[in-house]
Each structure stands twice: as C-alpha cells, then as structure tokens.
Amino acid sequence: MWRHHDLAPSYDVVIIGGGVHGLACAYYLAQDHGITNVAVLDKSYIGAGGSGRNTTILRSNYLTPEGVVFYDESLKLYSQMAEEFDFNVLFSRRGHLTLAHTDGAVRTMRRRAEVNRLQGVESWLIGPNEIKRLCPALDVSEHPRYPILAALYHPPGSIIRHDAVVWGYAAQADRRGVHIHQHTTVTGIRTANGRVTGVETTRGFIKTGAVLNATAGWATTIADMVGVRLPIVTYPLQACVSEPLKPFLDVIVVSGSLHVYVSQSDRGELVMGAAVDPFASYSLRGSLAFAEGIAGHMLELFPALRHVRMLRQWAGLCDMTPDYSPIMGLTPVEGFFLDVGWGTYGFKAGPISGRCLAELIATGHTPPLIFPFRLARFYERDLVGEKGAASVGH
Prior knowledge:
Layout: E1 13-16, H1 20-33, E2 38-41, E3 57-58, H2 65-85, E4 92-93, E5 96-100, H3 103-118, E6 124-126, H4 128-134, E7 150-154, E8 158-159, H5 162-175, E9 179-181, E10 186-192, E11 195-201, E12 204-207, E13 211-213, H6 219-224, E14 233-242, E15 252-255, E16 260-264, E17 270-276, H7 288-301, E18 310-320, E19 327-329, E20 336-340, H8 346-363, H9 377-380
Helix pairs in contact: 1-5, 1-8, 2-8
C-alpha cells in the first residue's frame, strides 16, 4: 500500500512518528498545500505505537468549549474517510453512554451536556429507563455497589478500525509523493541560530528546515534534542479483548467512576479498557492487577458476562499533561513543531490535528482551532482543563 524509498539527503518537512497523527499531517500537507517533499520516520513499523494499541472509540462530548469543537471536527473527518479514500475503514456510529454513579457525576454529565449543545454537538442526560432501552444488558437495578443513576448520551459516538485508518492515510500520502520510512530511528536534531537545520537518523542525516514531533511515549525525548522541555509524564494504559460473542452491545459504554469502557467489535470481541497504571513507566506488558480489576468492574455492569473469557491484553503509552489537553503548534525553536501530549485522547484527534498542523507548517499561521492548545499556555496560565471529560481514570 506504500512504497519503500531510499533516504533522500533533504526534505521540506520531516515528520517524526508514523502513527495516525504523523501520517495525517503528511497527507494534508500534500493534499491541501501541495507540499510533497515530506518524510515520515518511524523507529518501528507504521502504526506500531498508540495508533495500533488504542480501543478505537471516537467521540466529541468533551468538557471545555475548545475541546468540544476540536474533537467534533475530527469526528466529521473520520465519518467521511471511507468515501474520501475509497477504502473501507469500518466506521460504525454506535452512540456513546457515559454512566454516572454518584450525584457529583450526574452534575458533571449535566454540565458536559450543556457545553456540548452550546457548541452544536448532540449530548443530553438520560435516566435508567432510557439507558436500559439503549443497552438491555446493563444492570440498572439498585443491587450493584455503584448503581447507575444517569448517563450522558452522545449519539455521534463511534468506533473505527484503527489499522485501516493508518493504512488509509499511509497509502494516500504515498500516492501523493510522501516518503514513508519504517525502522528509521531519530538519534538527534541539529539546530543553528535557534532554528532546525536537519535530522540525524540511524540511516543517515537529513537536511530540513521543518520537523514535526508527532510521537507518543517519546515526545519528551525528541523535544529534548532541541532543548525544548515539555510538561509531560508518560503512563501505560492497558486494554484487552474478550473471546468473540454474538452481537449484543450496540452502544459504547463508559463508566468514569468504575474506570472502565467497552464496545463490541465487528468480529464480536468486547474491546475493554480501564484506568492508566498508577505509576509512570514505558512498560507495554499486561498485568494481573489490570485483568482482575477490569473483570470485576465489567461484571458490576454486565453480570451476564461472568463466563466470558479474556482473549488477550496489551498496553500503550499515554503522555499526560497537567491540564489533560494536548500540546500543538509552535515552539521557541523555529521550524520545530509539536503534536504531542495526547494522553488517552490521541486517536480521536488524528485527522483534525494532522490537518491543522499541516496548515501551520505550510502557512506559518496557527489555525484558531488549535491555538488554545499551544505550549505557551502553561506559562501564560491559560490552561484547557479536560480531566472532567476523561473516560479513563488518571
């Protein structure tokens, strides 16, 4: 679906990170701005990082107005992707339920619903009877330790095949002349007089005046190469899938109090995730504590699943910022751009972040949609607090 190229001595733009963010930026640079002398570098294979390790949930029911409009644009791009690429990415609109088990959670869901509707996004608060109608398998009785009091219902919530998204962007970028270099590790970035001049890799040196850091897990390592410090701490986030079951779960179900989220794939597997690990590390291994925890919480919500077996589990890396929002845009080093700090939201934002970063690199002007997520907000005390919209425990 994409070709192998020798490393050219120079490129107009070098993108570090071959996931959905990096590939989307490369595609939109070529598609929207005619910049095709672009290299995408990944130290492993395309989609080996967070793009291939997430749980494929798409939504735009965030807490801040800045977040809601940003993720809603990304969701629109995802919904059009199959037609745009003429490639089936298995996009499936399911509806998204965020359960509330306490009075405080109900108040948060009501606030999110109001913020969403003010930005033109479908979300509203529903009670147990409506929850039961949408998801009959859920236990909405008073028997569980944490009874379900209400839920934020977000009809546009969807799932998509993450591998297909990566392949689609890679294939489209390749057709437009972008060079995709797998198994190419960046070892250094050269600068002179406060601007980028080139990238050192395990396959040789590349001369360039523009570098995009679109990595997950190693964002701080790449930024350190140019002397830019990022307020990011990396935590593993584990997930798992069950054995295939007959279709019964039409909606996506999330519990912010129990720190569990689940959807059913087209193959019948239950795709589940929980809270980030309680300590910072780069581990990609599953743990018994995760398996035990998620099994208990899933059975509180779906008692009928008590005999279902777990098929496999894995982990990905989440770069957490102090306000739980990403960092996108310019840095003090001219020609060095950021698309990092996505925490648990990265896959949802791939298309729109790629389009906005492509516009910034091509024109030099920061699109209004990503201006709130600039690095300078941490120094200007202008944070974008999204912790209340996290479906994952942090």
